[in-house]
Amino acid sequence: MATMQDVARRAGVSVSTVSYVLTGARPISQATRAKVLSAMAELDYQPNAMARGLASRRSRILGLLMPMDERGLGATETAFVTGAAAAASAAGYHLVLSPIGAGEVDELRRLASQRMLDGALLMEVQLDDPRVDVLRELSVPLVLIGRTADTTGLSYVDIDFDRTVRDAVDHLVRLGHRRIVYVNHSPATIAHGYGPALRTRDAFVAAMSGHGLDPLMIAAEDSAAGGRDALSEAFDRAPDLSAVLAMNESAVFGILGELARRGLAVPGDVSVVSMVTSPQVAELATPALTAMTSPGSALGRIAVETLLRHIDADSGEIYQQLLPCVLEVRGSSGPPGTAGGAAGDGPARPTPGRT
Amino acid sequence: MATMQDVARRAGVSVSTVSYVLTGARPISQATRAKVLSAMAELDYQPNAMARGLASRRSRILGLLMPMDERGLGATETAFVTGAAAAASAAGYHLVLSPIGAGEVDELRRLASQRMLDGALLMEVQLDDPRVDVLRELSVPLVLIGRTADTTGLSYVDIDFDRTVRDAVDHLVRLGHRRIVYVNHSPATIAHGYGPALRTRDAFVAAMSGHGLDPLMIAAEDSAAGGRDALSEAFDRAPDLSAVLAMNESAVFGILGELARRGLAVPGDVSVVSMVTSPQVAELATPALTAMTSPGSALGRIAVETLLRHIDADSGEIYQQLLPCVLEVRGSSGPPGTAGGAAGDGPARPTPGRT
DNA sequence: ACCGATTGTCGAAGCGCTTCGACTAAGCGT
DNA sequence: ACGCTTAGTCGAAGCGCTTCGACAATCGGT
Questions:
Q1: Can you tell me the distance from the alpha carbon of A347 to that of A267, in angstroms, rounded to the nearest whole number?
Q2: Handedness of CA A179, A185, A186, A187 (dihedral sign)
Q3: Which part of the chain is the HTH lacI-type domain (chains A, B) (predicted)?
Q4: Given the DSSP bridges, would you call strands A142-145 and A155-159 parallel, antiparallel or unpaired?
Q5: CATH number (domain holding residue A309)
Q6: Same domain for A263 and A187
């Protein structure tokens, strides 16, 4: 392992000069810079991260605090991660993921108070997230992915649920649907104040009302069984329903199963649109699901850029940004009342869309 | 931020003594240790990771190199990660995940040659994985999750595919099935030499032969459509088939869809068993899938323990370990030829055009 | 009672880098 | 011509920790 000493010696300059070449903290002449760079290349020099971190009090590490619940990560999350990692890498930072949720605050405190993190991105943010307090206390810059209840003084990036729901409803209404039911997360989740569930609920009411339609929402457990039950309830309360908008990725499969059991065709009898769903999951269903695809990778990039802005210009300035999901029409939505016909991948009135 | 100086001063000892208390590198009397510890507590002291890393040439960071493909992470992977993180944390190490696949070798080289990693765990190992070469060259200890073609001198932990396939086949045979078809990954995947596909193929042949049965394998594309096609092919080649064993999580949903389309009940007409599938995914199907559940969390723990053994006793000793998936019987498997009656969720059979 | 080993502690020398102050040599306006 | 800023470089002082050698004190064993 070559050190900076070696490079300096070989280039015939002092170590501080080498350092300045690397960091750009002071002007260096073209000639010197060239000598230094070629010495580095010849020695295959790589700065030692620890030494650099110690001296500069900057680790060049960004933490991505990502709870890993049992149910795995959707493609949305992985897209987010890769987007974020690419952005970090481009800026000369490392992005390290740590499976730290609102529960494991201790581990976070360890990480942060050892001064390992220059900043942090929080995923799966709770309305009242203890991780925020820990990081603030240790004055580690942070950016939320999602939103806490009180976002004053906090930067975040999040999905624009209002816009997303509105676009989804518009899609169905434009196809001719009037009776649309919204299958949300479970009552418990809603009662617990889970942001996306609340925001989409309100957005759904607003969007439907805007079209002069009656907004019917049903809360479903996050499981296939929950979806089946939700669909039954939906038919009880609105026998004439022709479209389902589902927030709940697990329930969607139950909904489809129950629809099939009742001998109803998708989208001939009932159209189904899934929210915040990755293309990969959408393709699992038969027919493939028309869905609102989340802007995972863009969200990741923006989050990192925002965090970096905080880090190296730590004015108290804050940035709050929302990105909508984009509609991708696949086989599960079509005009109402065309049972037997429009099935499959049929011409469901293509809509421009894609990330 | 309190430093070690502060602690030493407050405890009335030298810094080296404080250090020895922390690292245990030399014996310290009970009395002194107590003084030091209480000084630490009072000052809320946390050692600075960078300084420690620089001085000791050990970062106490383990890298988990986890490719993040577009399709997201299964529950198996997340269980692995949490298991690994817990084990690392218990040993005083940090586990950082880096979305580094066989493609992004440069990023890995950066990470490793900056001496940031004390060791690495490689997920999604390819038969000939360039990451292994990079790490060896930089002499970073590593443990594979999975296996390369040549594992001499390499430690790994992996799923015991032989045992897993055998258990799955035994389950079906014991239920009375004779005609069992194995739906593997795609021909391309197999041709490319993907380990699990090859190993399960061979294990399937062995297991079936052991029962005096004819081993029929079909390679399916990794998609719902691939599953549908595979099932059609299966019926062409074995009209009397009564059970499907599927390796391919994406294809399973297509298989179920096609079964429903043909008006065949699961498990009344055909039993379906899924391999290496998480409970969460298994529950998505209707009926829920009987599946071989992978030992994700245990795998993670063992991998970390193995890696640590390498790190702090770097004899050339190697460890190679296999863990089987365990059978979890749900609704999709039952005795053959009991259409209408069988176990599971009951009459899941009518209705062309489900899912 | 004396030796060698062990236990317990300290001071000091780094680990490989950044960064501050100092210095030289130009370049500028006046 | 004068001081003054700016570009370009160097030496040295750390950053907060680990670890080595030294040394005093204690402890059997004979």
A1: 11
A2: negative
A3: 2-56
A4: parallel
A5: 3.40.50.2300
A6: yes
In chain A, residues with a C-beta closer than 8 Å to the C-beta of B85 are: 98-99
Pick the closest to residue A181 from A259, A74, A294, A282 (CA basis): A259
Structure tokens at B159: 């799923």
Give chain B's residues under pLDDT 70: 70-72, 314, 338-355
Q: For residues B218 and B201, what is the distance between their CA atoms, to the nearest angstrom? A: 10
Q: Find the CATH number of the domain harbouring A26.
A: 1.10.260.40
Please state, in angstroms and rounded to a whole number, the distance separating the CA atoms of residues A8 and B177.
74
Residues A145 and A124 in one domain: yes
Is the shortest CB-to-strand distance from A48 to strand C under 7 Å? yes
- Are both A267 and A313 inside the same structural domain? no
pLDDT tens, position by position, B267-283: 889 999 998 887 877 88
Domain count within chain B: 3
Q: Any idea what the Cα angle at residue A289 is, between residues A286 and A291, rounded to 5°? A: 170
- Whether residues B170 and B109 share a domain: the answer is no
pLDDT of residue B349: 36
The answer to whether residues B152 and B166 belong to one domain is: no
User: Alpha helix locations (H) across chain A?
Assistant: 4-11, 15-23, 30-43, 49-56, 75-90, 105-113, 130-137, 161-175, 187-191, 195-210, 224-237, 249-261, 279-282, 296-312
- Please answer yes or no on whether B114 and A48 come within 8 Å at the CB atom: yes
Count of A-B CB contacts under 8 Å = 174
Per-residue model confidence (pLDDT) at position A126: 85
Residue B244 in tokens:
């499907």
pLDDT tens readout for residues A263-310: 888 888 999 999 888 787 788 777 889 999 988 889 999 999 999 999
Distance between CA A335 and CA B144 in Å, rounded?
Answer: 51
Chain D bases having any atom below 7 Å from a protein CB: 7-12, 14-21
In a 13 Å sphere around the CA of B245, the CA atoms on its Cβ side amount to: 31
Question: Do B277 and B169 fall within a single domain?
Answer: yes
Look up tokens 């009344």; give the residue: B268
Query: Integer distance in angstroms from the first to the last C-alpha of chain A?
Result: 44
